[in-house]
């Protein structure tokens, strides 16, 4: 077994919210399952498909996806801050391979990644986001206009093809989703101040970051009380998406449309694009089976919260 997958929701609220004890325990049990899965697989390399929340990527230049040759955690919500262990030469070979297959990807020699990318690593490796060599792959999931989901699938498949015959044990991670609609400004309705932030808001002062994070925490608390003016979670949509993941028919992801996702699952449901890329990468390596699935809608985390693991089927 040389390729495997973990896809999971993330939430900056994991350490800042108080869901019912039973729900919190269920999430932690799911994380334990994923940790054991990864410990047993013991990857040599992690390919981490992650989104960004206007911490590393902004509208001054917003690619649909980007492969990092070097990467640094931004430290938002007390997440990992510092340099990740990125094999630069291998990342460059991967980017060239993808481009040679007519998928135009951006590259970054100083990628900045936020909690959306590093939280799964922190969870899986007991707080150590730099525990394993990792190639970070940004997938735009919050900033319209969005690529067709079909394009994300083909991007993921190209990455999987690169690693199909690798002698390394490669773990594909997809981070984000499922249905959720957190208080992220939308460029179409943003105030001039918000528009400036969405365009060039990197490296905020500690005070500005604290204000932004406090606003999200307050919204989560209000959402749990039924008082926030954000879209509700959509468990039916979440479960249908998980069924596509489980089916192995990655082409079925192509049916997802951006406007419909906004309407029924929230403006940040696009984070499932990271799952699309990860599952498509694994499928390029062979037929797979989902070995573990957890799902629960958790308002305190503003997320339809999912965790899945998958391996290639044995001949």
Descriptive key words:
315 residues; alpha/beta; Protocatechuate 4,5-dioxygenase, Chain B; eight-stranded mixed sheet; three-stranded mixed sheet; 9 helices; 11 strands
Summarize the structure.
With 315 residues, the chain is α/β, with parallel strands linked by helices.
CATH superfamily placement: LigB-like
**Number of beta-strand segments:** 11
Strand order of the largest sheet: 6-3-8-2-9-1-11-10
Which class do the helix and strand fractions yield? Answer: alpha/beta
Domain count:
1
State the end-to-end CA separation: 11 Å
Percent in strands: 15-25%
Stretches with pLDDT under 50, minimum 5 residues = none
Classify the fold: give the CATH topology. Answer: Protocatechuate 4,5-dioxygenase, Chain B
Could you please describe the fold and organization of this structure?
The protein is α/β, with parallel strands linked by helices and 315 residues long. The chain has a single domain, classed as Protocatechuate 4,5-dioxygenase, Chain B (3-Layer(aba) Sandwich), CATH 3.40.830.10. It is 39% helix and 20% strand. The chain is built from 9 helices and 11 strands. It has helices spanning 21-41, 88-100, 115-124, 149-163, 192-200, 206-224, 235-247, 258-265, 272-285; strands at residues 3-8, 45-50, 65-68, 71-74, 81-83, 106-108, 111-113, 134-139, 170-175, 288-298, 303-312. It has an 8-stranded mixed β-sheet with strand order 6-3-8-2-9-1-11-10, sandwiched between helices. A hairpin with a 4-residue loop joins strand 10 and strand 11.
């Amino acid at each position: 077994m040389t390729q495997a997958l973990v896809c999971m929701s993330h939430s900056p609220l994991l350490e800042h919210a108080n869901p019912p004890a039973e729900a919190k325990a269920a999430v932690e049990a799911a994380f334990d399952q994923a940790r054991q899965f990864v410990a047993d697989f013991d990857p040599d390399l992690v390919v981490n498909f992650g989104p960004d929340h206007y911490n590393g990527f902004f509208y001054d230049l917003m690619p649909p996806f980007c492969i990092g040759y070097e990467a640094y955690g931004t430290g938002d919500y007390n997440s990992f801050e510092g340099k990740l262990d990125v094999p630069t030469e291998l990342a460059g070979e991967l980017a060239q391979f993808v481009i040679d297959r007519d998928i135009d990807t951006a590259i970054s020699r100083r990628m900045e990644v936020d909690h959306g990318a590093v939280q799964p690593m922190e969870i899986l490796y007991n707080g150590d986001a730099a525990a394993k060599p990792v190639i970070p792959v940004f997938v735009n999931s919050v900033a319209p206009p969005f690529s067709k989901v079909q394009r994300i699938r083909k991007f993921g498949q190209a990455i999987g093809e690169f690693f199909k015959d690798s002698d390394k044990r490669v773990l594909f991670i997809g981070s984000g989703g499922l249905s959720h609609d957190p208080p992220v400004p939308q460029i179409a309705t943003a105030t001039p101040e918000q528009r400036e932030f969405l365009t060039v808001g990197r490296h905020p002062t500690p005070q500005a970051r604290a204000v932004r994070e406090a606003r999200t925490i307050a919204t989560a608390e209000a959402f749990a009380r039924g008082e926030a003016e954000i879209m509700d979670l959509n468990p039916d949509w979440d479960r249908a998406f998980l069924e596509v993941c489980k089916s192995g028919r990655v082409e079925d992801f192509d049916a997802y449309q951006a406007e419909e996702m906004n309407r029924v699952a929230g403006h940040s449901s696009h984070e499932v694009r990271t799952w699309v890329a990860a599952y498509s990468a694994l499928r390029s390596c062979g037929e797979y089976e989902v070995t573990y699935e957890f799902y629960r809608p958790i308002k305190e985390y503003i997320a339809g919260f999912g965790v899945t693991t998958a391996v290639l089927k044995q001949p």
